[in-house]
């Protein structure tokens, strides 16, 4: 492993774009780009081939290459035209095809349809991009939108599951079933579940347009293939003749089909077609019941298999596994284990949405053509189909809406468990935050609402694939995870190599499925390739064949190098259902390991890893048992977890906290500040490189986006202002620029009328010091609330208009960009970016890289702070009570390491597991301190800054890399006297921007009561909130029954007067007034609507 270096100080080419991009950083966007490239290269073609055909009776242009930076700067969408060629037939005769433009659809950055593809760093910088741009996202309305990667059930593998909710699916249904998520080559997905019914039968669940249906197993088996009952029976019980219960169940299921008078293959298909004709409305009216059944079997039953015979064989396998599972003869597998999961990539989801939109467009074309056919002038010609196509719209808006909101409106549901939250904004708060989005995998919003914790648990099979450290605390804990650094997501393999696998297996002893006997099945493993049963392999030769296939996989010439080989062995105890399962499809998680037999790198999958023996280091290997070894000791951590200095010396929660706080740090999110138009960006003006850092810090070039400050820290309880994680900052250090930051805010201004333009009124001379001749402010000008911000000439009203600055905070004009559109005519628009300086202030949040977060409690004068013998004054005073309870030993080591690095001009490696109990880190850095003339333990003698006396205690003193978090008092302070109230409750609204009130909760209530000032509660919760006066009837105790009645003063007079009366008592003499919270009146009215009467005891009023 390499050592970290201060390469930016010694590199003569620093500041120049490198010749090639960083491979580690490029891998961040690789799975997203690969899935999008598959969509445009192969997926769309396959999706169109699988669309249901629709049958019915009846100026000058210039090409301009747009770069993503342009779209970001002017809030536009980076998109390209989506053109389709439509073939249409009349009575089976091909007519003249035509081309239809379905609008502009967003294009993924750095895909093979993007103008940035294959550009070297120098050209990327020339186009205003970062030299290490890795892509993998979309630009929609100027925002970088990322399709979230979701963890889905492993494709094309029958999983034994037990769910209590299945009992409610029908009469006699049990909680036992075998589920399979079927995925076609065009990534169309659907779920089938073979349910065990307690009367000894089985029913298959399938869905169409989000509606679930259940069909008897034998009805489907007889519909799939024209086999006799005897053949079906023999297939079902082959190898299970000794299981009398299962044999009886198979006989009973076949018998029940005949009781329904369904005797032949045609009878069963006709019955299915008759039942489902109304559900498949896309079928033409002249389709027979058998044709409808064929369509149903193709679109809903095991859709990943093309042949009905293959579907028949897999259903038989699922039935055998189901009854073994129902009889408790094999283990439950479950869908929450990582070995049973894969990743839904953005490009594949995008492909599914486009395919469904194309199918909807075909239906629109049919309806449009049929409406034209009703016209008397209709002639069946080329112009008619073109006119019908012209009437149909595209789906440009729906795709933009999907990426902008993350919500989909799908007819079929796309095999997902959610239709919201599928897209996120790739927030660029800092480099760590930006990187983490591209490696994040989410379990799904459905599981966030579940009360059980099964989906959140970190199981052993996740080792090496899911980072155990990098997950947020709170509600998304365990659901939002991150892939480890070396974990890859497989791409679509070469189909020729996949086709070679059955041939190779046949050559080494695999028996085809139709040539195996019952005797051989009992002594053989079933062999499945991507959910298709291709044969059986004898137990005796199975391990050798698997090893042979593994060697071919490592070479990658005859079979894909991403092939996943799983041998689930037969065991005498209850275990997982045995077999040999081969997976070659995309979206699987794999990671590199060293194969000890051939000493080469092999990619291993999640399911495959469970049945391998893997050691971490050579000392743990057992000859003849251990098969693989980890490439390094830190392979199980994500990118962000590997940036923590010596996490093996910290308490585990502190490492989790650092992964979260690292993503909230002010740093250097970008280099092209003048080209940015994001709503808000945080910038640390005076960053520094850490002197104690892991090697991974250099591998991903994090110094190019620095995000921290090296501070001199004294661990001493010097004042009362550093209790409870608070910290004191040296006022002189803050004035010299310690952790000084800025916020960049951008806003767009667009004029209402096309005839309007930006200009300064020449008659208003006082505007010259504020605005330039073009009506826009000067670059670098300081802005204060109320000052002129810009001026324009209103063409509609023929007058000059000056707009003032409305910001509450003092800021500076950083840049102004005029923004255009692709339209021939458009309203004038510009983007203005403000720079808001932010010095550290009391209440701002800071944290070390060991998860030691703290609030700045005071900026202490430098002359009052303690100083060392050499005259050093600390930048930060840290309370020593923060170490024992948090157990962040890594911060203590960093304090010594940073001090020794500064003394000797070194940079130390903070990669975990480098030191041992025999060779400790403290001893190593302590000796370096001794060599520099300092105390071995990192302590120093300090002198009081107040009276100059020497302190009796030795003070721990050194250098720590501190992070300034984006949580600042200037953004969060809130005060209110009077302001807007809620229309319904009459209480102050919430929200700082709206002028809302400060929340007064039960903890604040308890605090006032405990301080003996409980009368203040009346002021806070009544007088300053929703105090109101109501009428109350003393007699009946109701506040709803008193009403105001209008009566005449006399019969002869037209004058009227108002009187108060109780509707319940018919008396107005007992009505009085009472001051109560309005919310209580509202509550009483709601209870009354539920026929509940509230009576107030008026005796003490």
From TrEMBL:
Protein name: DNA-directed RNA polymerase subunit beta
Record note on quaternary structure: Component of the RNA polymerase I (Pol I) complex consisting of at least 13 subunits.
The DNA-directed RNA polymerase I subunit RPA2 domain, residue ranges: 534-591
Keyword check for Zinc-finger: yes
Protein family: Belongs to the RNA polymerase beta chain family.
Free-text function comment from the UniProt entry: DNA-dependent RNA polymerase catalyzes the transcription of DNA into RNA using the four ribonucleoside triphosphates as substrates.
GO biological process assignments: DNA-templated transcription
Location relative to the cell: Nucleus, Nucleolus
Transferase is among the record's keywords: yes
Keywords: DNA-directed RNA polymerase, Metal-binding, Nucleotidyltransferase, Nucleus, Transcription, Transferase, Zinc, Zinc-finger
Domain RNA polymerase beta subunit protrusion intervals: 66-372
Catalysed reactions listed for this entry: RNA(n) + a ribonucleoside 5'-triphosphate = RNA(n+1) + diphosphate
Coiled-coil region(s): none
UniProt-listed Enzyme Commission number(s): 2.7.7.6
GO MF entries: DNA binding; DNA-directed RNA polymerase activity; ribonucleoside binding; zinc ion binding
GO terms for cellular component: DNA-directed RNA polymerase complex; nucleolus
Residue stretches making up the RNA polymerase Rpb2 domain: 154-343, 425-488, 996-1097
Pfam family, one: RNA_pol_Rpa2_4
